[in-house]
Every structure is written in structure tokens, then in C-alpha cells.
Design brief:
Length: 494
């Protein structure tokens, strides 16, 4: 103890400066208390401290029990996190986290730091973005402790590893990297840890910050990490050998490494029969293709390839465009821009008002533009169907990417017709081939071709056939199911 007090004299000035800074905030409380046996000082931020914990677990034992030193007080208090320290940096850190500082003098050192955090978090609710009819109805919240609890209770195994760190010079945001030891590839874990550790930024308010800063290609419109709000999905990918990143204050958990086909697979696919799941995946892929290519093909055909339109249908095209004074490209650009404006307005307004704007605005503007002769009714139908098809994407960020892709395809179709669409597709394919997610190929299992991983790509094969983990992950345990036992006859022997 004498060594502590000698060091205290060296740190007295820094403690005084620390408290001088804290006292400039009106929510910082510091006062002295005289009891029958000792005098002590207590300091804390009242906006960060739970009053019930302070009164019941700290002040009540202090006044009801006899003690003469901070070591004795530490053994008396019924609180889990207690630190006896002389470190000024630790004092500052813990006071700003919601700890209560108890000392025997105004600028006392050593002091006792007692956990009394005020934890206010949103209750666990239904998933809004990834809602499913079948399956669990829990979603992540903004509290990192609650989110880890949702994962822990679904994975009650000792191999589950959680590595935490703080990022953001100002926000000091807590972050957790979660994986299963013995399954996840150590190289993938090290890659995630190294990239996050090298982040130098003032603030991190959401997991989207992390997505942009650790992505392999920062200039790509494609998200290279999958974000989800479903605990069951995170548990599933952890069992596959992937890595999850949880950011305090964000209800979305990052998953990596990932592939392009995963963005078009809904987690509800695993709750349905494999035939139905495969059918719905094919519908989604067709819908995405239609959403990107429908309007560009319309512009290309009307500008360069009239011969591709059937004769019976050509009359309808001519009739619908008879009074339209602008070329097909400007006509399509006007409608696509209108749709995007309606979507943005609907997303930024309150829920009830946004729905009204989307429905009424779409009907009114579409009907008025056709009657005014600004657009054709055929193109209006195509644009509306393309907008509807883009909503089939289960992941919101990938839906935004699809919204963007329509415009370069539209410009290339205006310049070169169908050849321009093929050329734009070649540029897109080249970009996807070069893209990686945490160093792993983004276009896998298409390229490099891996037949075993195709069992859960465009189609969802039965669980009995998905006996291996994805080869892309290079897991330490490739097998996750005994194939022979899974295919055994389940009938009872007579």
C-alpha cells in the first residue's frame, strides 16, 4: 500500500486535471460523506449510473457495515465488477462507462471503481427487414450484451469464442468478433481482427462503418459483407465456419466471408421443403434479372431492333408511343427517376404517410404521365414490374445495388442497343470475378467452380446432401453430417 501512495503523489496533478474537466459537466456529481467510522468521497456521472444500484448495492452496504480501508470495502460490496486502482486512465475510462468512484480523499488514489451502469436498451422485437412467416421471431437490438446473449443461448458450447475491442477515438465503440474455434479458419479470423484493429477513425456509430472500412474493394457498389438482424441466421453461419462482427449500438450483425448468391437466399428457405425453397430462389434470381434488364431491353429494342417485336405486338407499341414526344431513353429515365423518388420519399417519411405516398403517388403520377403523353402505358407497366421485382431481394443493401445497376445498363442500351447490354454485362461480370470478401472469391461457387457448394446456391438441396461445409471457408472440420447415417431408412424394423 505504501508503494501505491508514493505513486499517488506523482499522479496527483493529473487526477486534479481530470476532475477539473469532469466538473465542467453539470451531470458530474462529487461529494463527501461522513459516517460513524470513516469519511469518504464519492464521484460519478448521474446520467450514466443506475440509481437503484447506487442506493441498494453501494450506499446501503457502505453505511450499514463497518470498514476502515478500501480493501475491506471491496469485499463488502455485492457488485461483480470492482477495481482497486491508482491508474488515472482507468479512472477516466470507467467513470465514463458508468462506474462509481469511491476514495478516502477528494483526489484520492488509490480509489475503488464500482460498476453501476445504467443499461437502457430496446426490447427484443420482431425482425422488420428480414421478417419470415415461419421460424423464430427474434431480432437483434442496439445492446451488444443482449445480442451476444441471443447468440450464446443458441450456441451453448465452450468452443464459441468472443474477442472484444474498442474502436473510434471519440465514441470508443465496443465491438465483438465471434467465431467457433475448431471450425472457423484461423486465417479468416486473423484477417478480420487485423483489419478492424487497423481502423483509425473518430466515430463508429453503426456496423455499416465497419463494412465499408474492412471491405476488400471500397469502390464497389456490391456489399462484400452480409448484414443480418436475425440471431438464428448468425448461429447458422457460425456453425458453417464463418465469422460474425457485432457493433454496440447497431441492431445488424456483419457476416463474412460471403458470396454473391447468399444475398439472394432468404433464411426462410431452410424452414421450407427443399423443393419449395429452390423454386422461390429461382423466382428471386429471375426477378433480379428482370429488374435490371427489362427497361434497358425496352430501350434497345425500340431504338435498334424493331424486328424482334412480334407483329401482333408491334401495333400496340406504336399506338402507345404515338403521342410521346421524347425518345424511349428519356421516357424510361423519367419513369425510373420517378420510381426512385417515390421509394426515397416513402422510406424517409413516417410509416403511414410513406405507404400513402408510395401507393397514391405511384398511381396518380403514372396515370397523369400517360394521359399527358409523356410516357407510354407499356413502359409504365415494365417499370412498375421492375421496381416490384427489386423488392424480392432478401438483403436490403443488395436491393439498393440492383436499383443502381439499372441506370448504366440503360445508358449502354441507348448507345449500342442489345450489344451495349452485353458489353455492360461483360464489365459487370469482370468486376464480380475480381471481387473478394475477406480475401475469398465473391463469385464462388460459380467461379471458381465448386460443385459441392452448388448444393446451397441457386437451388437448396435436402439437408442430407449438404453434408459438407462450404469449401470457400476452408474450415478445420469440413464434415458437418454423416452422409451414410442421414440416408438410412428411418422405418421401424418389424
Amino acid at each position: 500500500m505504501s508503494r501505491m501512495y508514493k505513486q499517488n503523489w506523482k499522479r496527483k496533478d493529473s487526477i486534479e486535471k481530470l476532475f477539473a474537466v469532469f466538473r465542467s459537466s453539470t451531470d458530474f456529481i462529487q461529494y463527501d460523506v461522513n459516517t460513524s467510522h470513516i469519511k469518504y468521497w464519492i464521484s460519478y456521472f448521474e446520467t450514466l449510473v443506475d440509481v437503484n444500484i447506487l442506493n441498494e448495492n453501494i450506499l446501503k452496504p457502505i453505511h450499514s457495515k463497518y470498514w476502515q480501508s478500501l480493501e475491506e470495502l471491496k469485499n463488502i460490496l455485492p457488485v461483480k465488477d470492482i477495481f482497486l486502482t491508482i491508474d488515472t486512465d482507468l479512472m477516466k475510462e470507467k467513470l465514463l462507462e458508468g462506474f462509481v468512484m469511491i476514495s478516502l480523499s477528494e483526489y484520492g488514489s488509490p480509489c475503488l471503481l464500482v460498476n453501476a451502469k445504467l443499461n437502457k436498451a430496446r426490447e427484443i422485437t420482431l425482425p422488420e427487414v428480414e421478417f419470415t412467416v415461419i421460424g423464430p421471431k427474434e431480432a437483434f437490438v442496439e445492446s451488444i450484451e443482449s445480442n451476444i446473449n441471443l447468440i450464446r443461448k443458441r450456441l451453448p458450447i465452450e468452443e464459441l469464442r468472443i474477442r472484444t475491442l474498442k474502436i473510434g477515438r471519440l465514441t470508443q465503440t465496443r465491438l465483438a468478433i465471434i467465431y467457433i474455434e475448431g471450425i472457423a479458419d484461423e486465417e479468416n479470423v486473423f484477417t478480420v481482427w487485423q483489419r478492424i484493429s487497423n481502423i483509425q477513425i473518430d466515430q463508429v456509430n453503426d456496423s455499416s462503418y465497419i463494412t465499408e472500412m474492412i471491405s476488400d474493394n471500397h469502390n464497389s457498389p456490391f456489399p462484400q459483407l452480409l448484414d443480418t438482424e436475425r440471431p438464428d441466421r448468425v448461429v447458422s453461419i457460425l456453425a458453417e465456419g464463418k465469422i460474425a462482427v457485432i457493433v454496440d449500438g447497431s441492431p445488424h450483425v456483419l457476416i463474412g466471408p460471403t458470396t454473391l448468391v447468399e444475398f439472394f437466399a432468404s433464411f426462410e428457405d431452410y424452414f421450407l421443403n427443399w423443393i419449395l425453397s429452390s423454386f422461390f430462389r429461382i423466382i428471386r434470381l429471375f426477378a433480379v434479372s428482370f429488374s435490371i434488364l427489362a427497361t434497358p431491353i425496352y430501350v434497345a429494342v425500340l431504338n435498334y431492333h424493331y424486328e424482334l417485336i412480334p407483329t401482333d405486338l408491334l401495333n400496340n407499341f406504336v399506338t402507345s408511343r404515338r403521342e410521346v414526344p421524347v425518345p424511349p431513353f428519356l421516357e424510361a429515365l423519367f419513369l425510373e427517376g420517378t420510381i426512385e423518388l417515390l421509394r426515397e420519399a416513402g422510406a424517409r417519411l413516417p410509416t403511414k404517410v410513406g405507404q400513402t405516398i408510395g401507393i397514391v403517388g405511384g398511381i396518380v403520377i403514372g396515370t397523369a404521365s400517360v394521359e399527358a403523353g409523356l410516357t407510354s402505358n407499356i413502359l409504365l407497366i415494365i417499370v412498375a414490374l421492375a421496381a416490384l421485382a427489386s423488392f424480392t431481394t432478401p438483403v436490403y443493401k443488395m436491393g439498393n445495388t440492383i436499383r443502381l445497376l439499372r441506370f448504366p445498363f440503360l445508358m449502354f442500351a441507348e448507345m449500342y442497343g442489345l450489344l451495349g447490354i452485353v458489353l455492360c454485362f461483360c464489365f459487370l461480370a469482370t468486376h464480380l470475378l475480381r471481387l473478394t470478401s475477406l480475401g475469398r472469391p465473391f463469385l464462388e461457387p460459380i467461379y471458381p467452380p465448386r460443385i459441392s457448394d452448388l448444393k446451397d446456391a441457386f437451388l437448396r438441396m435436402p439437408f442430407s446432401m449438404m453434408n459438407e461445409r462450404p469449401k470457400q471457408l476452408r474450415t478445420e472440420q469440413p464434415k458437418r453430417m454423416d452422409e451414410e447415417k442421414s440416408r438410412e431408412n428411418k422405418d421401424i424394423d418389424e
